[in-house]
Amino acid sequence: MYFSFETIPAFVWVFVATFIFYWIKKPRISKNEPPMVPYKIPIIGHTLDYIFNTENFLAGCRKQVNTIVGNETAHEVYSTDVFSQADELRNGVYPETLEQVVKTVREGIAAKLPLYTGRMQKQLMISINKEIGDCSKPKLVKNDFLSMIARPVADVLVGQEISKNDDVVKAFADFTKDFSSILAIPPILSFIHPKVHTQVITLPFRFGWNPTLKHMITLKKYLKPVLEKRLKDKETLGDKYEPPLDIIEYLLNDPEYETKVISDDYLNKICEFLFILVVVSIHGTARHMSFALYDFAGRPELWDDIYEEQIRIDKECNGELSPQHINKMVKLDSFVRESLRTYDAVLTIIPHRCLESYTFKNGMTIPKGRTVRIYLMDIHYDSTAYGPEPRSFFPYRGLENNFPASKTDKNYFVFGSGKRACPGRFFAVNEIKIGMHKLILNYHIKTPIGKIEKKIRSGPFSLPPANGLIFENRINCKNF
After folding, report:
1. pTM of the predicted model as reported, rounded to 2 decimal places
2. Which of these, 29, 50, 144, 161, is most buried using a 10 Å CB contact count?
């Protein structure tokens, strides 16, 4: 057969086109891995569907998941050391201190939770008075509840003296907002490689632009004299020194943060750690507090029943809640659990990285280095666990099953699962319940449209509605 010189480029282009087509279609998986979902668009794959239509996209991939694990295998990710949250976080904007964070929350907060109860409700009432105040006439309040949650968190982290300062409370709330806005950037460059997205969103930091730096300066300003005074008191009082109950005192006694001089380097180190605690303790709690209030405000049929429980408990404790009284809020607790279950996130926020090749019990294998995300909606809307209408909001589902809001199980992954369950979940749930208890006692709360407000979707994540809530004083409200 004769080929002219002019036909060679045509064959080259056919070969290149064939190779590219084969490369796009070729499965990028090893033996026994879950099958790849065929690309919808060459090169960028499913990026657009993942960002703008996550729920339907993952629902369509239900039987062909790759790095998204659903109801059948999610518990294995949390129960084995093969999957690491810390390793994935180190590739982002968190320092390598996750284990220290977990230890501090578990020992310094969760283990001493009853001792914080009185201080928590006092700080929440200060926030309620400041941010909502007198509503003798119906008042539309657009509040993300960051500052309201930040005040009791500040009390626990940096102590009662510093938390009285509104600048510190504002710094905690604003830091959470600024940091969260960076994390909320859609991963539009992840189709090239996940690390590309991480490198791009952290690029401003490497060139000196840091919107969180001003909050660090504020905290250092108020923290330094308090730390110096504590070190001096320890030295002069010896055994007579009475240690305050807060996290900065816990850290001063921790070998990792023990010091004799409060230098600038030490201040930077301890403030960086404190702000990690700020993000993990304020962001999620404030968001779920908002979800719960919108869920309550949009369901008039529940108002009287839940209000009556709060009135009864308020009379029993004479306005001063104890841990025992908080435990008696069984209807409110069940309501909060259902709000947490149905907040409509498609995936969990924190991914996991597979540290070595792992084979699930169903025979599927995940290779070393693979990032795994939990398909949260598949777990929380499982009809086997939650009946034929798993998406329906049944406020007393937890009450009927004797499952409190802070209890994790294989069908409830808001706080993770197993040994990796969030150690701060007890504090967070108590904070939400105390806040709602006080708000329901003091106000009639409703949505502007008089029914359930639609949540805001941001890729695979869900945000509370932005239309605000209407607050109106209850008659003979004793707190105002």
Report:
1. 0.81
2. 50
